[in-house]
Amino acid sequence: MDMQNIYDIVIIGGGPAGLAAALYAGRARMKTLLIEKAKYGGQIAITNEIENYPGAVEEESGPSLMKKFEEQVIKFGADRVFDTIVDVELEGKIKHLKGNNGDYYSKTVIIAAGASPRPIGCPGEKEFTGKGVSYCATCDANFFEDFEVYVVGGGDSAVEEAMYLTKFARKVTLIHRRDTLRAAQSIQEKAFKNPKMSFMWNSAVEEIKGEGVVSSMVIRNTVTGELTTVEADEDDGLFGIFVFIGFDPKSELFEGKVAMENRYILADADMKTNVPGVFAAGDIIKKSLRQVVTAAADGAVAATSAQKYIEEHFED
Ligand code: NAP
User: Fold this and answer.
1) pTM of the predicted model, to two decimals?
2) Measuring from atom 36 of ligand 1, which residue has the nearest CA?
3) N or C: which end of the chain has fewer CB within 10 A?
4) 140 flagged as catalytic
């Protein structure tokens, strides 16, 4: 193997964790490659408003913050490719990543593949995704200007995105499986005061129906089991369903190769996994707070740990 083509650090995933890792690795003059499958920024790139990233004050959006992360990565010189990794060999001293567009070799790997929105899992959901069912308010809110929309979930994301949707939709109804919200108190208070918001408690979406676009859904009362059908307003002929019920880690590729718990990768305080030379960062790891600030911190730690590992295990 030609050592010239071996990277010091290959990072899988270009969200906040991966971008922060690439910035730190590039700045440390490591031969670094950032592999992203589609678009930088990860999940936060579909969030409209960021209030709690330190230093990101008024007018900061997910995309604007991620653009700054990306520019900083470019400044410090990490190589970047767009590719989807389909297989990994992590055991050896040199790690091998197989992508759709090529093979990559590296002394260390940082897994920062993130998480993806959790689906409801009911009939009709897949069929109507993009035809009334959405997982991104910033992307799709404008399609529902003056229509009715329903938001599924009771956490911070559901309530915040529901309020964002009130700027477009005529009416926003939050469907939650219990009768109290999980969202932070301050967020709840704003939602309860919003005249365009209403709440459907103890309710779960059982089935989504329509012809071409969503026009009805079956709701189950989670206490009584009773089923009711919600129909689109006759003049509208359709409504939107936005789903925000949490996230699943994108860890399938690493199953059986890196230690996990409930599909989240286990990493220690130095972001080391159980496999030497393999680190993990961001939403894909088991942790208690999944935010941009914690993802970025993980990425910084992972890159620094990878650098130390290389110094200890490889001679120049
Ligand atoms: P979350 O906090 O895990 O909330 C998920 C919500 O969806 C819960 O209300 C849950 O109901 C519900 N749910 C889960 N599975 C469901 C299913 N199969 N069917 C119906 N409902 C289901 O997720 P999140 O709101 O996406 O937030 C993720 C993390 O990001 C959290 O740590 C959150 O604090 C953070 N976040 C923070 C902010 C902010 O600080 N501004 C904004 C967005 C997200 P139960 O309540 O009954 O479990």
Assistant:
1) 0.78
2) 156
3) C
4) yes
Question: Could you tell me the maximum CA-CA distance found in the chain, to the nearest angstrom?
Answer: 72
Find the 243 Cα to ligand 1 centroid distance in Å. 10
User: Which residues form ligand 1's pocket by a CB distance below 6 Å?
Assistant: 52, 120, 152-158, 160, 177-178, 182, 204, 244-246, 290
Residue 172 pairs in a beta bridge with 149, 197
Which of 190, 217, 243 is the last residue in one of the domains?
243
pLDDT tens-digit profile, the chain (316 residues): 566 789 999 999 999 999 999 999 999 999 999 999 999 999 888 776 777 889 887 778 888 999 999 999 999 999 999 999 999 999 999 999 999 999 999 999 999 999 989 999 999 999 999 999 999 898 789 999 999 999 999 999 999 999 999 999 999 999 999 999 999 999 999 999 999 999 999 999 999 999 999 999 999 999 999 999 999 999 999 999 999 999 899 999 999 999 999 999 999 999 999 999 999 999 999 998 888 999 999 999 999 999 999 999 998 6
Question: What range does the domain containing 152 cover?
Answer: 133-243
Tokens 């579909």 correspond to: 46
CB contact set of 170 (below 8 Å; sequence gap of 6+): 146, 147, 148, 196
The answer to whether residue 125 is domain-embedded is: no
Please report the DSSP string for 266-286 in residue order.
P--TT-B-SSTTEEE-GGGB-
**Token pair listed for 301:** 């730690």
Tokens encoding 134: 């959405």
Angle at 78 between CA 279 and CA 139, to 5 degrees: 80
Half-sphere exposure of 273 (CA within 13 A, CB side): 28
Catalytic pick among 87, 103, 139, 268: 139
Q: Considering the domain boundaries, does residue 122 fall inside one? A: no
Instruction: Name which of 84, 81, 82, 80 is nearest 100 in CA terms.
Output: 84
Taking the C-alpha atoms of residue 218 and residue 231, their distance in angstroms, rounded to an integer, is 9
- Same domain for 66 and 162, yes or no, is no
